[in-house]
Structures are given as structure tokens and as C-alpha cells.
DNA sequence: AGTTGTCAACGAAGGGGTTCGTATTTTGTC
DNA sequence: GACAAAATACGAACCCCTTCGTTGACAACT
């Protein structure tokens, strides 16, 4: 069976972002990283990460005094989860609508457009 | 200046969906529509819509006894708002990542892929 | 006129997320 | 060993969202 795939809250997502980019990390390391974006207490991050353990969003190694955390689900899986949620709730399940809206929204570079194009071609080629 | 553009919650979004598709509606009409999807009390919808008035998500005509509501912001603006939010929080602002993830996620029909393709071409053509 | 039905308004309660202060335990230093 | 620093654990508080029961006003019907 596939993973449970839990939809993280905003605060949890901020922590996951740090874990994805840093890999194995302590609470202090995550806190230091988050401080670069906004002010928040150390225990706030700690509490959040403890809850995330219970939810299964992260795992931790408790063998040493300072616990070491890591994300339990990958960045791509989580992105898919959040995207699917938004897709159903705001786009009636139409991926096309979502993609077009996303493209019209932001100024993408030519390079990016080309990469999307390439991916589209790949998808089409795969079809029978 | 552009509209404030408020990010609706899940419950609010469900109501907005009804208002977008129905146009001017009473609380009862919205409630009846939502009942098709899931069970919920009339006053629950009423309360939500009252709060949405305060937030500016909907407007209402109170001239008659049964108030008549309508969405204050368009569907597309709201989609953009939600999409931008997700873009920043889960995709580091990269529209390309988001689009690719969305495409890889869902089985889009050939027709849809073609439409996306056409939109891509349009975007490219607009570039200098 | 009285009863029944519909509606808006209000308040309260519960759950989840976020924040942080405090207490406790462990580690390291003098 | 005493003291300071660092980490975890715990619990409380707050806010937002959601849900609904109750109340009071208005309307319609008999």
C-alpha cells in the first residue's frame, strides 16, 4: 500500500521545507533556519515538530540527547498531495484549468516555458 | 488599486463555488446545493455566509427579508490567489515545478494536453 | 387572531494550529 | 560537586474555522 500522505499545515510545511533542504536536522538547526524568515521562539518549533512526529510527518532518532529529525514523506509526494487538494477544491478537478491559471499568473522565463514544453512532449509521446 | 483578494477557507470556498455557478443566491439555495455533497445544517451555512460578508468575500442585498448573496471576487482571481499561496509555500515560487508536478499527477486527456500546448505557444508568441 | 413555517441573528462549543512560559532532565565546565 | 547551558516535555492560552441550538422577527395560511 502507498504511504498515508498527510496534508501538512502551513507551519508544518515551513519545517518540512527546512528538513528537505538540510536533510537530518536538530530542532535548533531548523529553528535557526526559520529565524531567517521570521521571528519565532525555539519552543514553538520544538512543539510543532513533536506534534509532527505523532502525526507521522517526520521521524526522529532519539538515541542521543539531542534528537535528530528527518522528513517522513518526500517533497514531491507532499507537493502532489497539496496540489490534488487544491485541484479538487478550487478547479473542479481540471488539471488543465489549474495549469493554465498557474501559467497566466506568473511571468515564466523562456527557459522555463521550454522545459514545460519538453515535459508536455514527453507525456504525449508516452501515450499509445 | 487591485482588490484586497482574500484567501478563503475550505468551507468558504465551497460556498463560493455555489455562488459562482448559480449567481445571485439565497442562503437556502446555497444550502440545498451543498446538501448534494455532504450533510450540514442550514444555520451552519448561514453563519459562514454572514462571516463572509464581514470579510468581504461576498456581498448581499438586504432590501427584502430573505437576503440575496453574491460572490465579491471572481473565480479566476480566487484561483490565482490560492495558487500563488501554494506556489510560495510548497514550490519555492517556481511555476515550472508546480506545473510539471500537476501534469505528472493526473492523467490528462490528449485533448487537454493539446489545449495546454496551445496556451504555451500563445505565451511564447507574446514574448519579444 | 392564532398557528405554523421561514429567516436572520446570536452565542456557545469543539477542534486544530500556533505560540510560548515553565518545569525537568541532561550535559558540560569550573 | 556546584553551577550554567541546552534540550525535551508539558500545559495553557489564543485564534480561526466549523458546527449547531436557540431566540426573535416576520410571513403566510386557516
Textual characterization of the structure:
The structure is a homodimer of 128-residue chains. The first copy, chain A, is mainly alpha-helical. In chain A, 62% of the residues lie in helices and 6% in strands. Chain A has helices at residues 10-22, 27-35, 42-55, 75-90, 95-105, 110-126, and strands spanning 58-61, 68-71. The first copy, chain A, has a two-stranded antiparallel ribbon. In chain A, a hairpin with a 6-residue loop joins strand 1 (58-61) and strand 2. In chain A, helix 2 crosses helix 3 (42-55). The longest helix of chain A is centred in the last third of the chain and has 17 residues, at 110-126. Chain A binds chain B through residues 10, 13-14, 76, 78-80, 82-84, 86-87, 89-91, 94-106, 108, 110, 112-113, 115-117, 119-120, 123-124, 127, and chain B through 10, 13-14, 76, 78-80, 82-84, 86-87, 89-91, 94-106, 108, 110, 112-113, 115-117, 119-120, 123-124, 127. The first copy, chain A, binds a DNA duplex (30 and 30 nucleotides) through helix 1 and helix 3.
Amino acid at each position: 500500500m502507498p504511504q498515508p500522505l498527510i496534508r501538512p499545515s502551513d507551519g508544518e510545511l515551513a519545517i518540512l521545507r527546512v528538513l528537505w533542504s538540510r536533510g537530518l536536522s536538530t530542532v535548533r538547526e531548523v529553528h535557526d533556519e526559520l529565524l531567517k524568515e521570521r521571528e519565532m521562539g525555539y519552543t514553538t518549533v520544538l512543539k510543532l515538530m513533536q506534534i509532527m512526529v505523532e502525526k507521522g510527518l517526520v521521524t526522529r532518532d532519539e538515541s542521543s540527547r539531542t534528537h535528530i529529525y528527518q522528513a517522513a514523506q518526500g517533497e514531491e509526494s507532499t507537493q502532489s498531495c497539496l496540489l490534488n487538494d487544491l485541484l479538487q477544491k478550487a478547479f473542479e478537478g481540471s488539471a488543465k484549468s489549474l495549469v493554465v491559471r498557474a501559467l497566466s499568473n506568473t511571468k515564466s522565463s523562456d527557459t522555463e516555458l521550454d522545459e514545460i514544453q519538453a515535459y508536455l512532449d514527453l507525456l504525449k509521446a508516452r501515450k499509445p
